[in-house]
Amino acid sequence: MIKGRFNSNHVNICSFKFFNKITDFDWLPRSVLITTYDPVSEEALDIDRIIKKLLEAGTKYFTCIGDKSEHLHDKIDDIICLHDYKNKTEYYKSVITTYHSEEEINEIASYFFLGTYSNLSEKECFLIILGETNFDAKLRADIISQLEKIKE
Predict the structure, then answer these.
(1) What's the per-residue H, E or C state across the chain?
(2) 66 CB-near residues (< 8 Å, 6+ apart)
(3) Pairwise CA distance, residues 140 & 146, whole Å
(4) Residues above pLDDT 90, as percent of the chain
(5) pLDDT of residue 101
(6) Which residues pair with 65 in a beta bridge?
(7) Is the pTM value of this prediction over 0.90?
(8) Strands 2-6 and 148-149
(9) Contact (Cβ atoms closer than 8 angstroms) between residue 64 and residue 76
(10) What is the rounded CA–CA span in Å between residue 130 and residue 80?
(11) Separation between Cα atoms, residue 66 and residue 102, nearest integer Å
(12) What is the pLDDT of residues 58-87, one digit of tens each?
């Protein structure tokens, strides 16, 4: 996992494989960016489990990017509505989902950092989950160039 800061807010960047190994959060992924450029199937990524895990951890903002981002956006909305129906909760009132399929990489990164949350608490973070495509590598490099390095 890559860790950094953006305007004093924690930023964590990881792969789907790494995220699936996380059993407990020591930080709260308040705002999450998820790529859909990776050709691996949703079933292989276990996207339903990922979204449920993020909702339970307190994620309030999902930014979906990539050629299948609208589909992922709709899937997240469906997972939220089904969870609310089954558990008599109201996540749909407090969780925001967006998708971006045609924007430039720098626009996506700027929107994610500046348009989702500006002042996270000390225990909250931005979380970016990326795949293994060339687009993901470019996005990772662009985001890393915007981060202030932090020492662990």
Answers:
(1) CEEEEECCEEEEEEEHHHHHHCCCCCCEEEEEEEECCCCCCHHHHCHHHHHHHHHHHCCCEEEEECCCHHHHHHHHHHHHHHHHHHHCCCHHHCCEEEEECCCCHHHHHHHHHHHCCCCCCCCEEEEEEECCCHHHHHHHHHHHHHCEECCC
(2) 35, 36, 37, 72, 101, 135
(3) 10
(4) 8
(5) 86
(6) 35, 100
(7) no
(8) antiparallel
(9) yes
(10) 22
(11) 8
(12) 898 999 988 888 988 998 999 888 888 888
- What letter represents residue 128's amino acid? I
Q: Name beta bridge partners: 149.
A: 4
Backbone angles phi, psi at 101, to 5 degrees: -110, -15
Q: Which residue has the tokens 């792969």?
A: 15
**Tokens for 116?**
């989702």
Enter the tokens of residue 97. Answer: 């989902």
Q: Tens digits of per-residue pLDDT, 37-56?
A: 665 555 556 778 888 888 88
Q: What residue spans define the domains of the chain? A: 2-149
Query: What is the CATH code for 2-149?
Result: 3.90.190
Our CA dihedral for 27, 100, 107, 102, rounded to 10 degrees, sits at 150
- Tokens encoding 64: 């979906």
Q: How do 9-15 and 28-35 pair as beta strands?
A: unpaired
* Residue 91 identity: Y
